[in-house]
Design goal:
Length: about 100
């Protein structure tokens, strides 16, 4: 099992709008093909002194080829509207992990 996690930092003034967008638009768009499943959005704590809020958006994929297929064929369809909506008031980085135990 592959875990695909993107951690986002969003301006405090936009955090409620960001959550709504993630739940109503981003997650459905990301999981539409079935290549990414099990979406989980979580608040990240421990960012004292930084402005804004941090969130982790996590999906699972069956294997690396499935994640690569999603990245090659669908990522731009999901990320471009997100960046257009929030512009410079949003930053993020992604991590790919393999589950070893459950």
């Amino acid at each position: 099992m592959i875990v695909f996690n993107t951690t986002f930092q969003v301006d405090a003034a936009l955090h409620e709008e960001f959550i709504d967008y993630m739940l109503q638009v981003f997650i459905p768009m990301s999981t539409r093909s079935g290549l990414l499943t099990s979406p989980r959005l979580a608040r990240v704590f421990g960012t004292e002194g930084e402005e804004g809020h941090s969130y982790a958006m996590e999906f699972t994929a069956t294997d690396l080829p499935a994640l690569e297929k999603w990245n090659n064929e669908e990522r731009h369809l999901v990320i471009a509207p997100l960046l257009e909506k929030f512009k410079e008031r949003l930053a993020g980085f992604s991590t790919v992990m393999q589950t070893l135990t459950t």
